[in-house]
Design a protein that fits this description.
By secondary structure, the chain is of the alpha/beta class. About 30% of the residues are buried. The site of one iron/sulfur cluster has 10 residues, from loops.
């Protein structure tokens, strides 16, 4: 069963370097969804210790305890982050690592769970527009789109039991 991240996990990255692809890093002018030039894929960061603040600030939800031990981002091909939008508040973001994984069983199960506990979930696929799913209609606040990671993001009302990839 899916669970909220507890922040008490003792997990470590191991061979995962997935966020070094998914996340934009301002200091390096690294765009989202492109491998960082300092990343030794499957090994680690070549400048670890001197890596930018933008890298250090990422709160990997798997490291914090979300999902099962086997749901490491490089395995399920989804990196999970959280983000606070001034209007919509705290939301969970799924970054796709390889195309198609946002429609896979892990992302589907976690999205249903999060919606069922009242969380907004944003899907960032490699191709196509982003989608922010909100479980309660009132969370739409009259908004229909916004920009995230330089891409259009549509906002849709989605009760947990109706979610399908
Ligand atoms: S996605 Fe999470 S587990 Fe993977 S390298 Fe980044 S911080 Fe570590
Ligand atoms: S600088 Fe290092 S930690 Fe930061 S994105 Fe690049 S490889 Fe990853």
């Amino acid at each position: 069963m899916s669970e909220e991240a507890t922040g008490t996990s003792t997990r470590s990255c191991g061979k995962c370097t997935a966020c070094c692809k998914t996340h934009p890093i301002l200091e390096l002018a690294k765009p989202a969804s492109k491998w960082c030039s300092h990343c030794q894929i499957g090994k680690g960061c070549a400048i670890y210790g001197d890596h930018p603040q933008g890298c250090k600030e990422f709160s990997c939800q798997w490291l914090l305890g979300r999902g099962q031990d086997g749901d490491r981002p490089d395995q399920v091909k989804i990196v999970i982050d959280n983000f606070i939008l001034p209007v919509l508040g705290d939301m969970i973001i799924f970054f796709e690592v390889t195309e198609g994984s946002i429609r896979g069983s892990f992302a589907t199960k976690e999205t249903r769970f999060l919606l069922s506990v009242g969380r907004a979930v944003c899907h960032l696929p490699l191709a196509g527009r982003n989608t922010l799913y909100v479980p309660i209609k009132e969370m739409l606040l009259g908004l229909h789109t916004f920009t995230l990671n330089g891409k259009e993001t549509v906002i849709v009302h989605m009760p947990a039991d109706e979610f399908a990839p």
